User: What shape does this take?
Amino acid sequence: MPIIESSYKPSFLFKNVHLNTVHKTLFYSRKNSYRREQIRTDDNDFLDLDFSIINSETIVVALHGLEGSSKSKYIISVVNHLNKNNIDCIAINFRGCSGEDNNNMYSYNSGQTEDVTTIINYILNNYNYKNIVLLGYSMGGNITLKYLGETCKIPSQIKGGIAISTPCDLEGSSIALSSWYNTIYIKRFMRSLKKKTLLKLEKFPDCKLDKKAIAKAKTFTDFDNAVTAPLFGYKNAQDYWRQCSSKQFLKDIKLPTLIINALDDTFLSESCYPFNEAKTNNNLFLETPKYGGHVGFNTSYFGNDLLWSENRILNYINHIISK
Assistant: This one.
């Protein structure tokens, strides 16, 4: 498919990539009243699903980014907007992200599509939705794309997917995040990830992870070599990134799927923009606005409409479920 020309045109202030990236996190104040359902997994663990339902025939499964949750401001914002426009939502909490520690030493990673399958099966067995749409942000976008590309038999109720600010190439994104201009973000990620892992080691004292290597980790290369790769059975960080990057699965996506990656997103490397894959797959639509930051896409700071991405998501959902 041809690359989509984006309608996103921010005010002068939001041409600053860092302001655009952090604005919702710092200033979005609206709340959402979820109804939580806890479901079991096959490996003696659980997933917390937060429902926000207005009795629609369409439900959006929203997958948050790294160390996010259903309480992430961008998730609350899109759930509120979709509910307002008569669409039900489930805000997923990946393992260990719901406020309650999960049962196992491992929690989640950027390619863990097995949990998406568990969630979809739960919806199909307990609800009667005509349409299901997957919506992933950042890491959640990578999981969404990987699921859509690698899954051989996707249920007919799933009509397509949307991926926002997605690191399609995990190694490229990891290198980008180690740059000096991303110092504030990588420090925040490392602080949260290391804290959780060190608490896990107290809970599982027989675990063989290198505590000193974890404490010293400053980049995703450090952390994924010390934690993610050994816990999930990968050889090292590079092997994990190679196997879990969604870019290699894009050619096999058979449902209409929209990727929105801003060209100024400092979390993404050049390899995270799948232009060639979009040009050769009629089901894949790639939109690359000049501005937008990482999960930003705010418009006018002094206006009432800060919801460009939410409106774009809504329009695309309505487009694919009307086919």
